[in-house]
Design brief:
Chain lengths: ~475, ~160
């Protein structure tokens, strides 16, 4: 029998066959891919936690914690990122490493960006080196290599907020963290630094047995006890009495606060005995007769405010509404089926959807514009206050040069002390006013008032020629 | 004699069998995927179905504790109140939800589309017709007002 030649209709049938076969196999492949994806998503929802290592109260190394909590650890490591926002964040600038300072990348210098800061801090270590803050990952090395270490003798107290201290307190204090704290504060920086290895680590905020938040810094425990006592609450223990939501701010408030080193033992102290507002803190320093340094140009007993984020946030609407630091700076996120808080601590402006839009259902651009408007206004007023302070310093210098005595300069020096503490309270605060916009404006307004009152007190002196001409009235 | 019978293994019989097998396989895999993914549950009115994927866990637990928990399910507020509209919306949202959940191309705090917002707004005004009518009468420009602008949390936080 002869095989018939394939007819045209037969070959059309073949083409249809192959098409149908190809389509159905593609459908099968597609369905399998989807099936696998659904399977993976269902697996994600299981086994939230594998304990692969035992964590104890002595586990300082975050990499060990990271074995049990890889997602949080992954985020934590990302604090090396250097990203700018309009008013905050840091630029990664290259530098040539030296023997004394092996850093090959640093952030921009704030005292070079605004040289008025050098005059405000004349005679103080901050006039030598002050850079934009970088992420948590850099806290220890940036402190070890800052120029401030070389121009002034720094105490071990500085380490309280630049290293993982939980185990160091206990080791140095033979089991008693408060004793260890006192000893470490009083040591020279280099000696105290031998007791620490890591920047802030898991153990500084978490209980290794339960992962619950806990406060590890004695200065904060004492600070809160003093603050609560001023409000009529006796014997407040932050680890016993705070709510979980409060702890989500308090662990940050252990360091992001105004502080000073009390007495010759350099005990780190948070000046909250009267309250958290700038005038209450200034009053505490006035009563204690404390000054950070004597201003080199004017002889004023000056104060330096340092990153009072916790205090400023407390005056704002977010604190009032029960929104914690972690709600915006460590927003909840989803990894697979797990809800975790982001441990990539950073500006909420870099993650507006998770940080702001959880509560504020407006478009991202609008929210950003609102924040930047607040910050632009604050920055403008900060510049006005800075100029006013410069003019007071000019006048004080001129009066001093003209031979005015301490008694005659006293009022103006006091005014300078307050003017620059108030100004610095906003300048050093890392939100450019956002944490409490109206409070920031009030503080800057009062700073300007202090500067102008100081100038006026000098104008009453006999034979005084103002350094700056009075501005023309328009 | 054997020549009168068609041969058992002609090319068309083989190809027909292969094609049938392939189509059957595709149907089988699709069918199983549908069952495994609990696809049938989306035809129901059970709010638990909306939380099949963990993307809606927060909304689901929010609804469990909300003021509307005892009077409205997901579908009452998120689909139109007519049969065709309801299933058309379910189909459309179902497709896009599956698409975005599979690809992962969606923001962490999910955002409602304008169309979904309107459906919800209509649902508020339907059940609360009396008060919605009063608001409209008192404020002639009331169509600019949105119930969920102020009452966005009644169904669930977030």
């Amino acid at each position: 029998m002869n095989t018939p030649n394939p007819s045209p209709s037969h070959s059309r049938l073949n083409v249809r066959f192959f098409l149908a076969a190809a389509v159905s196999s593609l459908v099968a492949v597609g369905a399998l891919v989807l099936l696998m994806n659904i399977f993976e998503r269902k697996q994600e929802a299981k086994n939230p936690f594998f304990r692969v290592v035992e964590l104890t109260d002595e586990t300082t190394d975050p990499a060990v914690w990271g074995k049990n909590f890889p997602m949080q650890y992954d985020d934590y490591r990302r604090t090396v990122d250097m990203v700018r926002t309009r008013h905050g964040g840091s630029d990664a600038l290259p530098r040539t490493p030296t023997q004394a300072d092996p850093r090959s990348i640093v952030s921009q210098s704030k005292i070079e960006e605004d040289t008025r800061l050098k005059r405000m801090w004349a005679g103080y270590a901050f006039a030598a080196d002050f850079r934009e803050e970088r992420g948590h990952a850099y806290m220890l090395e940036d402190q070890a290599y800052t120029e401030r270490q070389r121009v002034a003798k720094q105490p071990g107290a500085c380490l309280n907020c630049h290293a993982s201290m939980y185990t160091a307190y206990r080791k140095v204090g033979d089991g008693d963290p408060f004793a260890g704290f006192a000893k470490l504060c009083a040591m020279p920086y280099a000696e105290a630094a031998k007791h620490v290895e890591h920047p802030i680590s898991c153990i500084d905020c978490h209980d290794p047995a339960t992962m619950a938040l806990r406060v590890s810094r004695p200065a904060f425990i004492e600070g809160m006890r003093n603050l609560k006592a001023s409000q009529g609450v006796k014997d407040y223990d932050v680890n016993r009495d705070a709510t979980r939501q409060e702890m989500r701010s308090f662990v940050c408030g252990q360091c992001h606060v105004e502080y000073y080193f009390k007495g010759s033992e350099k005990r780190l102290t948070y000046p909250w005995h009267n309250g958290l507002k700038v005038e209450q803190i200034a009053a505490y320093y006035d009563n204690a007769g404390f000054k950070d340094w004597t201003h080199a140009d004017t002889g004023a007993p000056a104060l330096k405010a340092q990153h009072p984020e916790f205090e400023m946030w407390n005056q704002g609407i977010h604190a009032r509404s029960g929104v914690a630091c972690a709600d915006c700076h460590m927003p909840y996120k989803r990894e697979g089926a797990h809800k975790i808080s982001s441990h990539h601590v950073r500006s909420p402006l870099l993650d507006i959807n998770r940080s702001c839009q959880t509560c504020h259902k407006w478009p991202e651009q609008e929210l950003r514009a609102r924040v930047e408007t607040i910050q632009d206004r604050t920055y403008k007023l900060r510049n006005v206050a800075m100029d006013a302070l410069m003019e007071l310093i000019d006048d004080l210098k001129a009066a001093k040069a003209a031979g005015a005595g301490d008694e005659q300069l006293k009022a103006a020096r006091e005014a300078q002390r307050h003017a620059q503490f108030y100004l610095d309270f906003v300048e050093a605060e890392n939100s450019t006013g956002f944490h409490a916009p109206d409070e920031s404006a009030r503080i800057l307004g009062e700073s300007i008032d202090f500067s102008r009152r100081g100038q006026n007190s000098l104008r009453r002196l006999p034979a005084f020629t103002p350094a700056t001409a009075a501005p023309a009235v328009q | 004699m054997f020549l009168t019978h068609p041969p058992l293994m002609t090319p068309s019989v083989i190809s027909g069998t292969v094609l049938g097998g392939l189509i059957g396989l595709a149907l089988g895999v699709c069918g199983y995927t549908f069952i495994y993914a609990r696809g049938y549950s989306y035809l129901s009115n059970d709010p638990q179905a909306c939380a099949n994927c963990h993307a809606m866990n927060d909304q689901y637990s929010g609804w469990l504790k909300s003021s509307h928990h005892s009077v409205a399910t997901c579908n009452d507020c998120h689909t139109p109140h007519n049969l065709v509209g309801k299933y058309a919306t379910k189909a459309e949202n179902g497709f896009w939800h599956s698409f975005y959940f599979t690809t992962g191309w969606y923001p962490e705090n999910i955002q409602a589309r304008e169309k979904s917002r309107r459906i919800t707004e209509d649902a508020c005004r339907r059940c609360h017709a009396d008060i919605a009518e009063d608001v409209r009468t008192m404020h002639p420009a009331a169509d600019d007002l949105s119930c969920i602008q102020c009452h966005g949390h009644v169904g669930h936080m977030k």
